[in-house]
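Intended use. Records like the one below are meant for learning the mapping from a protein sequence to its folded structure. Do not use them to infer anything beyond what is encoded.
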Amino acid sequence: MKGLWYLAAIALLMAVGILMQGETAVASNEIAKQEDLVCTTCHDKPGSKLLTSEGKYFELMRSLDGYDDVTQAFGDCTTCHVRKPGSTKLTQTGRLFQRLVDDMNGLKTYLQEQHPTADAPEEGPGGD
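Structure written out for the chain above:
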């Protein structure tokens, strides 16, 4: 009888896991449609849980706004993160910027202030 309860508990956990995996895929599809993106913008292949650099950025920021500024300034996420985007183990460059900013929002603000985009108005000679 004890073995039957054990099997039932395992079956229930598997069913919950399968249902949750389906919800993730639906959410990803909804985000892709909302943002007008293809799945492989954020995932290494359709249906995969592995995130690309853009996917990890979107997961943290809930938007891709500022992603191009980050990659233009630093290159790939692994410039600051060891082995994969979002890793808590940082490279020397990553540790330097961790001391300058608290999080990705702080990094985005830092980049906007230090590396203005081409469409930002330029100050004239003598500035303000």
